[in-house]
Amino acid sequence: MKNTILASLLIFSVLACKKEVKKTEVKPIDASNTTQEIVENTEALTIILSPKSKSSVTGKVEFVESNGSIQMTAVLKGLSEGSHAIHIHEKSDCSSDDGKSSGGHWNPTGQPHGKWGAESGYHKGDIGNFSVKNEGEETVVEFNTDQWCIGCGDESKDILGKGIIVHQGVDDFTSQPSGAAGSRVSCGGIIE
What we know:
By secondary structure, the chain is mainly beta. 8% of the residues lie in helices and 32% in strands. It has 1 helix and 8 strands. It is globular. Mean pLDDT is 82; it is low at 1-39.
């Protein structure tokens, strides 16, 4: 009888201690029901251009940095009909009447002056030429590059602290060090 009681107690304790285990089904994630947020890092500056060299050339230049590239859009007014050059210069100083206080072309890599992308070399400020169809009309100039940045601190790419210059003439892409583009008719400092 003692054995029967012990056997009964043993069975009872095993049953009392038995835990119920639930099976959990793992389901794969349905990718069609998920959304991914893309965060775009964008920096923008708008620069006002002032007339220089007794001209009446005004405008504004917007620099928008997004995804490692800068889009420059210049809206200019007051230029004569024909071709003109636009460059980034060394300094944001536009205090002189002739715009020469902005220094020479921005050239952080020490290259010869030339057309943007030329194998023989070019300045990081050598944007190039654009055309004005009718004297005085509003003209839009667009330029895009991944070789500039806004406030990144990389001396070979950072356009902050530089100046944007519009020239009366055309850049010949060969004359050193500036392309013989003529007088500086408008200037704006690239500052925050």
